[in-house]
Amino acid sequence: MLPEELHAQLQKKIAAAHRPRELAIDVMYAVQKHYGFLSDEGLLEAADLLGMTSLELEELATFYDFLYRQPVGRFVIHVCDGVVCWMFHEGSVFDYLCQKLGVCAGQTTADGLFTVLPTACAGFCDHAPAMLVNGVPYGPLTPESIDQILQKLRSESCDLVVCR
Amino acid sequence: MPKLIIDHREIEVPPGTKVIAAAERLGIMIPRFCYHPGLGSFGACRMCAVKFLEGPVKGVEMSCMTEAQDGMVFSTTDPEAVEFRRYVIEWLMLNHPHDCPVCDEGGHCLLQEETISGGHGLRRYEGKKRTFHDQDLGVFIQHEMNRCIHCWRCRNFYQGFAGYRDYGAMQIGNRTYFGKYQEGPLESPFSGNLVDLCPTGVLTDKVARFKGRRWDFERGPSLCLHCSLGCNITSGARYREVLRQEGRFHEKVNGYFICDRGRFGFRYESHPQRPRRAKVDGREVSLPEAVQAAAARLGRISREAGPDAVACWGSSRSSLETQAELRRLSRGQGWRAPLFFNDASQDRKVRNAVSRLDVRLAVSLREIEEADFILAVGADPVNEAPMLALALRQAQRRGAQVAVLDPRPVFLPLEFQHLPVPPGSINRCLCILLKGALSSRAAQGLLEAGAAHFYDALKCSYDQDPGLQDRLLALGRSLQPSQRAVIVCGTEIVRDSTPDLAADFVLLLNTAGIRTGLFYLLPGSNAFGAALLSGTAEDAPPLHPLIEAMERGEVKALILVENDPFWHFPDKDRLKRALDRLELVVALDYLPSPVMARAQVVLPTTTLFEGQGSAFVNQEGRLQWAPRLHHGGAPLAQVGGGSHPPRVFLDYVPGSEPRPGGEILRDLGAALTPDPGAPAVDWWTWLAQENPGFSNASALPAPPGGLRLLPEAGKPPVLSLEEVNRNADRVPEGHLELFLVDRTFGTEELASYSPHIQKAEQAPRLLLSAQDAAQLGLAPGEQVTLRLPGGPLTIEIEAAVNMASGVMFLPRHRQLAWQKLGGWPMLIAYNAIEKG
Questions:
Q1: ipTM score
Q2: Interchain contact, A52 vs B181, CB within 8 Å
């Protein structure tokens, strides 16, 4: 169940919109932020708030990279899958990360810290190859800088937002 | 008009035509998956590539996304385009399973055809195929997602065209999954169209699953009889039973699509208990013997008790031939004029409606899609005539404003304005709306004298709800700039004068320069024909006097033609008693109805699938013709004892005795009067003498598009100001008015005999407004018992917010013994509604 405060806040926001549908993504993000991922329960609550069907929200939620329909780690790493990053050996970034963390794309490390996912072009081409960690861009990446970033994330209690 | 050259052939097409449609006009079918003429272009599949050689566009382009322009020259056979399409089909086929032999689509599969036409024969892909879990989508549709090639037609139709929101596309890219959020029956009553649209075997007809390939079927054009719209259908029969139906294009009626009631409601035709042998006093005899026996008994009663002792009761679901032969028979014998409707009020409303339609006013279903303002009066499209809801949606998608003036909690798959007013107030609300519509013209003095006088005298106060009055006036004002308005008027729950009032208003709006069409919904697939054959409204034989005459013993013999009074008569016990008093009941039907079991003489008739060809007139007066589909007989599945082919050869077809109702009635007439004396006139001449409405028609089969039986100019306005201005009749204090209403599934007689439709039915519930429920202290979902004249009726209630108060609605449901109501109007006192 969403906390009453959040529920009321979302309701107010939706009431002010021209059409509730416009806010579908925003509401799902808010719900995701509350649950840590967009759970079935959260999706149904969002559908209820928006007056949309569960299917309509599922269509959106499963289309967009940053809405997670399954539990994710504390840090969600989106490796950029854009053309410019390919040119800068994005593949090896992906492979290196996976190897380092011992997971495949889409999996979460056993300690629950990291989830590795690809994403469409993150718009960080001038720093290619790039990745996003909980919405914060990093790049240009090298194996060494990746090690450093992971080390930093592991050691520091980092209060990064889950996308936005 | 743009002129272009396609494969060296020139063609001129209307502006806005897509290149793929322009080619189709030349008979060139460019390969396609996502494009469908009923749905439009989508650009998802990349299969319709052609090469543009000259003109504003150059190179390989998608023909469904390119608008035809002047000077275009393109080739569908250019090597570059052909190679492009070959790669596209190869890649679309990457994951497609090799399961054609067990796939129901095989034989009429667009993917098979385009794979061949694209030149893809050998699979080069050796990787793992992508697979999915399938969902159970209910009784009508089989899901087999592995076969999907992602053309998006299903979602396009389901959400875009039809406006339902529980089926769609999830995931992304190669993983895109077409289905529901959670498996379960599809909510849309138009889901069957997915079967027609799916270019391969992802969505197939579950009802016809594993029953045959397309080439196994006797397949032909037919008509839908499950409401008054007269949608066109292609039916397929095999081994003497109809197994599968598809939508058939009609540019004026249904377009490409049909509803699920029409598609899956056909199983009454092969009902295991369907009467197939004639019976006299419960003994099976041959049909000619039974006709002779009926003639002898009818002749005797007619001689001894006078011709008035014989009554005929037909129905609005019979073909025109059957109805006409019944009329002819009773006329020839001097019997009482036949009835075709279920009660006097329905009879009046349908005749009034039919008498008001003319060539100028009547609009077809497809013309509704072009309208810019639609007002539905006393109509619940999804439940009464489902395809109307789709037409309204198309209009709304093109920018039309849709409003519904109806007391029920009407649902439509589109945005519309709902004005819930009780039937007694609909007339007054129409007046207010008209006042709003004509206000600016009246203020400018643009109305001619008669109309201006009428306008001035129109009452437009609605004391019960001043807010509603303002909404109606505003709605009326938004009608002012309309170019193509349509008024849809139902004939079920409205008062007797409402159909006339709707017509009068349409006339007035037209004189005031607002072009407005009129569209009625009628009860029954051939209600229009029945009304034409019933004569004018003035000489309408009222119905209840027939029951009274039966009770008094004045009527001694009753001929029931494709009519089951136990289905529609509101007082079952009274009907039973009245039937028991009769000396003779002769029943003709193809349904295993309860009245067939009571009749002394049973004469089995054919359905429209096996008749010699039958004509039906839809609610806009369109005479349409359904030729014979197959030659009748009991289905092999029923007489073969599980073995096929039959091991014993017979010189007759078992169960093939039923004959068209019209033919049986003609034989009955001949047996009663062996020598009619006067030479028989041509059938159409006789019909035109009966009603000039038929003078347009001269022969059957009617032309493929149908033939409209409408006069050039109809009646002038018929209602007096006094009648129009009559105050809304109110339900007495402490009472609720009860109406019988339709549901998409469960209340239509023919479809209710289909097991698949029965599975799709929702349990019947008593609908009343939340306000009334609160006043009665009832909670939604609670059981109540209605004390009705014919006994108690226990039913669950449903409290709706968006409906008028003071009224209740009971579905005329197969599962509900509602035939205890007694009669009309039905007022239920508060204290006759008890909890539990």
A1: 0.92
A2: no
